[in-house]
């Protein structure tokens, strides 16, 4: 039996960990800002207070992971499996979620913004329309 990886407190920001097996890994308070974790197996991992701001977790498995207090703000969690994950007090503001993932996250105690379930923080907001010129002659006419 192999010992789980201990990456607690490590700075893995911008790292590409796609398709990595991190089953039962300890990532407590790890910095994973902007990390790519597509299809990564984080089943049973300890992600308490980890910073996953704007991380790409598309298709990742967080099944039975502990992510209490983790920061997933702006993260991509589309198609991620969070079945049985402990997301108590996890922050998912601006995270991209599918409806079923969103419901699972709410049941697990995550803090979400209800008005923007599929917010895409990487897509710029459209510019406001230019001010309209009013023709003074037409308005008085």
CATH class: Mainly Beta
Query: Whole-Å distance between the termini?
Result: 87 Å
Radius of gyration, in angstroms, nearest whole number: 20 Å
Low-confidence stretches: 115-126
Note down, in words, how this protein is organized.
The protein has 141 residues and is largely without helices or strands. It has a single domain (1-115), classed as 3 Solenoid (Pectate Lyase C-like), CATH 2.160.20. Helix content is 10%, strand content 0%. It has two helices and no strands. It has helices spanning 99-107, 136-140. The longest helix has 9 residues, at 99-107. The termini are far apart.
SSE diagram, text form:
Layout: H1 99-107, H2 136-140
Task: Quickly list its features.
Pectate Lyase C-like; 141 residues; little secondary structure; 0% strand; single chain
